[in-house]
Amino acid sequence: MSSTGLRGGFQYMDGATDDARLTLEIVNGAHQHGAIVVNYAKAIQLISNHNQVLGVCIQDQLNEKTIEVSTKAIVNTTGAWVQTLGSIPSQSTLKVKYTKGVHLVLPQLEKQYAFLLTSPKDQRVFFLIPWYGRTLLGTTDTPYNQDPGNVLVEDCDIEYLLNSISPFLDQVGWNASHILGSFAGLRTLVDGSNKNPSGLKRDWMIQKGADNYWVSLGGKLSSARADAIVLVDQVCGLLGRKNISCLANRFLPWCPMPSMNEFLEDVLKQSAPYHLEHDQVSTLVRRYGKHIHDILAIIQ
Fold first, then answer.
1. Which of 128, 216, 275, 280 is the most exposed place for a label (fewest CB within 10 A)?
2. How confident is the model at residue 195 (pLDDT cuts 50, 70, 90)?
């Protein structure tokens, strides 16, 4: 890391997560608590009557058959696909903007620190983060107006990120040949102005589409659990189950106990007979939490 012009710095502690694994764990946790979970099923249309949503039409993606599911309440948390269900007659048209964010996976650096940096090109903040024995570089923030299912990492995204990091890692000399992987996602933001993508608010909001229909828009992963409490309490209020605070003060079901360090030490002792290296066990614990015991059972 270049120290040219460096006057000082600071270090802060922050959380890290594997967002794909987190999604699977949330679905699994809901299933364990009684939710009916259906995969390869696409919600294609709302069934409504005036200001009331009566249900939703679901299509089986394996055989294309459709069924209608009746419901007392619906929460739309489909992110970039939030507009595909259409609207009900009394609902104003949703106005959202998509911005694309790209990350590149690059080789591990000698110093395993996360860096918050500013791109010389447009003064946007981006990050350099240790990632499963590699380095994660990102992200971009560009307008996207196409099908959410077709979002791709493009050459211009790669060029932007490599050019942004180059002045800070001039001795490393990363280029396109060093890229080990890449992925792209979309931010779904409330379209309240003609601002550039980075100027749009990331605030989370609920749009009430009907008396029993909620649409979740925007927000951040770091505040998603607090947002979910608000949504769940509103739905429970409609169903006559008030003040249950079902998510408040409850640990996530895969959370290591009593603490991460103590849990890791215990798992290291349990895994000793399997000749796993410390880094292997640490990576598995950080990705799977308490489910590491299922993995050890498979190894055994």
1. 275
2. low
